[in-house]
Amino acid sequence: MRVTKSIALASAGLLLATSLAFAQSTEIRVGAPLEPPALDPTAGAAEAIDVVVYQNVFEGLTRIDQDGAVQPGLASEWTISDDGLTYRFTLHNGVTFHDGTSFDAEDVKFTFDRILADDSVNAQKALYEAISAITVIDPLTIEFKLSRPDGLFLFNIGRGDAVIVATESAANNGTDPIGTGPFAFVQWDRGSRVILEQYGPYWGEKPALTKATYVFIGDTTTMTNALLAGDIDGTYNFAAEALPIFQSNPQFKVVVGTTEGETILSTNNARPPFDKLAVRQAMAHAIDRQEIIDGATYGYGVPIGSHFAPHNPYYIDLTNTYPHDIEKAKALLAEAGYPDGFSATLKLPPVNYARASGQIIASEFAKVGIKLELINMEWAQWLEDVFANKDFDLTIISHVEPFDIGIYANPDYYFGYNNPEFQALNETLNATTDEAKRKELAQEMQTIIAKDAVNGYLFELAQTGVWNAKLEGMWQNAPVEGVVLRDIHWVE
Amino acid sequence: MNAQLFRAHPGLAIGLALTVIFALLALLSVVWTPFPIAEISVARRFATPGPDHWLGTDQLGRDMLSLIMFGTRTSFTVGAIAVLIGAGVGVPLGLAAAIYGGQVEWLVLRFSDLAFAFPAVVIAILIAALMGPGAGNAIIAIGIFNIPVFAQVARGGAIALSTLDFIAAARLAGLSKPGIAMRHLLPNITSLIIVQGTIQLSLGILAEAGLSYIGLGTQPPETSLGLMLRDAQSLFLIHPWLSVAPGLAIVLIVIALNIAGDGLRDALDPRLRRPGLANVAG
């Protein structure tokens, strides 16, 4: 018994040693805090889906690079008509899906027809509704006609929501994703991990990695231990409070970058007393942004004064629209008819930044007389109560979509902001392709919602990755959701 | 209880003293804590223990001593109410089983068997998951688990007593069954129930800490010792004190209650009394 045990131990040690040596060359294990509900990025809103498959398993006509710029993807080149309404794409030749079937213009048409179908379950269908006709010219040429100019069209077709799927396999992509990307899906051990392997016949430049395993670890402490023990090689966004453990450790590097996550105190503008501008202004004055950033993100968040990412070229700094001023807040509350303040509920989804910010905001609001009752919710309940049924006073959430100021033009959106002037501006912006004019419009829109104090604007989430010091090529910023493996490689 | 009793049972004295200290701290937090626990000041976070903050401050700049006082109160409140629920329902059930026998007894016993078949914390998680997290549901969850424990203790004690002469005398005097249970059985099993109560109190405090730790118990801005542990765990490698302080408090409270419970049993349980008095329990 003892003998067999020691043999087993020795061989286990040997296996471990060989697998470690192997991992140094071409394999990676990435820790991810959330397991995706399914693996089809065109049929779900969860960021966790894109983290695994975007640009790894699936590709779009264009692709977004780590600076947020549009690069050619499955389309090698394109021409745009002068009126901005016709896009003609030339597709790469010799592209195959992972099941061996070939890729051509019919697959592109099928993909977009599927997104735009009445029974589509695409999370961002609205982004593609300007498409009025799709014509297959020949197997490697396809033409899109738009009903109105769309300055973000090339960006939008590069997102995870518009990756190209095959007619033959699209229905099963949720459990057995088949795309054209450099990595093919191998297996999904539910509750534990997803394994991808390099796809041999990939049409483009081959990535350095041959195998990637996404390991799902929800708990920060477990993730910390997995990193320290070498069970995973890195994670793309790690809890800020525990970063000091890795900052001083030469075996790791901490990669701090930007995301598209505007974290806001979402306010139900349709419900009293939040329908009063003075009340919202009072709340804006009551917020001490720096304290929230220090307390909830350990200083990694970037303050925002409107719903716009600070690293975007259209950004203007509006953080001083309503500076932290308790007396001013009290005066505004009195003006609005609430000299003694009021009580409200703050519903918090199960993410650290929301739970921590919630407690800090409750403490800050208490100083001006607004008493907040904190209600902690699970995701499903939050999505149903707050997002779908709009049954809330206040909530804290990060809007991670890139360039999503357009949500303020939708009066049916969950925070219930209805401003015809803003809606008209948004229409103009969508139809404008001139850069200077777009910038001007976007800045005007940022200013309007900042002045209207639609929501409490808190901070832009940072992306704080922790990786093995010998890994290179990870995206520092997250202009779109995803952990793109193509450039990641080991160095000695 | 007198000085002689404490001399005979030093464990009881130590346990009770510690329990009383924590209970007083908890009581004090109702009217006063050094700092309000909802008062957040990020500027002063992670302070080490010092004259301003005797136990330092946590990741949001809240005073640790205040948090521990409040957390102790949550723990005691949840544990105590759960014991009251358990004893309030369980003792009558146990007494009914003992005096009526037959189908009543069968039902009570099968109910306790069923409840015992599931580990207590699993039941608590189930209830908290079904009804949503919160201190109230934690109390109910732990209280329900306490019911069969008290039912069995009460039944066992009552059966041991019911063969004794004074019970027979009461029956002959025409006292009804519920009357006998109330006037003769209950007073004589009180000590058993008190001993069981202290044990269940410490188990309840542990269960509450466990539920809060996994996020199903007390919710912020309220706090409990388990919740403090949960908040501090990802910081353990950087600021270990934030986990050690509430952890130590839980350990001390539970040890104190267990020592006190053991001591009380030694002092009160008739079966363990000195030979001269042992005949009460037959």
List the keywords.
heterodimer, A: 492 residues, alpha+beta, D-Maltodextrin-Binding Protein, domain 2, Dipeptide-binding Protein, domain 3, 2 domains, eleven-stranded mixed sheet, four-stranded antiparallel sheet, 13 helices, globular, B: 282 residues, mainly alpha, MetI-like fold, 10 helices, elongated, disordered C terminus, peptide transmembrane transporter activity (chain A), Peptide/Ni-bd (chain A), SBP_5_dom (chain A), signal (chain A), ABC transporter substrate-binding protein (chain A)
Brief overview, please?
Chain A is 29% helix and 23% strand.
What does this entry look like structurally?
The complex is a heterodimer of chains A (492) and B (282). Chain A is an alpha+beta fold and 492 residues long. Chain A has 2 domains: 230 residues, D-Maltodextrin-Binding Protein, domain 2 (3-Layer(aba) Sandwich); 204 residues, Dipeptide-binding Protein, domain 3, CATH 3.10.105.10. In chain A, 29% of the residues lie in helices and 23% in strands. In chain A, strands 1, 8, 9, 10, 11, 12, 13, 14, 15, 16 and 17 form an 11-stranded mixed sheet that branches. A 4-stranded antiparallel sheet of chain A has the order 4-5-7-6, with helices on one face. In chain A, helix 8 packs antiparallel against helix 10 and helix 12 packs antiparallel against helix 13. Chain A starts with a helix and ends with a strand. The N terminus of chain A is likely disordered. The relative contact order of chain B is 0.15. Chain B is built from 10 helices and no strands. The C terminus of chain B is likely disordered. The longest helix of chain B is centred in the N-terminal third of the chain and has 37 residues. In chain B, helix 3 runs antiparallel to helix 4. Chain B is elongated and about 75 Å long. Chain B is mainly alpha-helical. Chain B has one domain: Orthogonal Bundle (MetI-like fold), CATH 1.10.3720.10. The chains are: A alpha+beta (492), B mainly alpha (282). Chains A and B meet through helix 5, helix 8 and helix 10 of A and loops of B.
